[in-house]
Amino acid sequence: MSVQDIIKEQVSKNRVVLYMKGTPDFPQCGFSANVVGILRACGVADFNSVNVLENPDIRQGIKEFANWPTIPQLYINGEFVGGSDILAEMYQKGELQKILQKQAP
After folding, report:
1. Which domains are present in the chain?
2. How far is CA 66 from CA 24, 59, 75, 92, in A?
3. What is d(CA 30, CA 36) in angstroms, rounded to the nearest whole number?
4. How far is CA 16 from CA 48, 64, in A?
5. Of residues 80, 73, 72, the one with CA closest to residue 99
6. Per DSSP, which regions of 1-102 are E strands?
7. pTM score, two decimals?
8. Helix 3-13 with 56-65: angle, nearest 10 deg
9. For a FRET experiment, which of 16, 46, 48, 51 has its CA 20 to 30 Å from that of 96?
10. Distances in Å between the alpha carbon of 1 and those of 5, 6, 8, 9, 19?
11. Buried-state track 4-23, b at ≥16 Cβ within 10 A, e below 16
12. Quick count: other Cβ atoms within 10 Å of Cβ 88?
């Protein structure tokens, strides 16, 4: 299975997936910590996280998967939503909460 296939499986089999540096309980960068905080503020306690520091192939592959150069990256219902800055803006406008409240397809 290729790295792209692994990523595709991860985002399609989990409602909320966060590719981040570190873990939700021990983020390894401020941007990842920010996104975890936003998800928790939205009431999302249970989400799948992938620590890209543990797998260099996933770390590079996720950038290619979404054609997005930075980490963290958030996927909801198989769709790329954005990185830290975009998610912070969406949260402040109430848009992220609306997406998260929708039922999984």
Report:
1. 3-97 (3.40.30.10)
2. 21, 12, 10, 23
3. 10
4. 6, 19
5. 80
6. 16-20, 22-23, 26-27, 48-51, 73-76, 79-82
7. 0.94
8. 70
9. 51
10. 6, 7, 11, 10, 19
11. eebbeebbeebbbbbbbbbe
12. 17
Residue 75 CA to residue 69 CA, distance in Å, equals 15
- pLDDT tens digits, residue range 51-88? 999 999 999 999 999 999 999 999 999 999 999 999 99
The two tokens of residue 33 are 């910590």
Backbone angles phi, psi at 23, to 5 degrees: -125, 165
User: In sequence order, what are the residues at sequence separation of 6 or more whose Cβ sits closer than 8 angstroms to the Cβ of residue 44?
Assistant: 16, 100
- Dihedral sign, Cα of residue 25, residue 27, residue 30, residue 33: negative
Helices (H) and strands (E) in the chain, counts: 5, 6
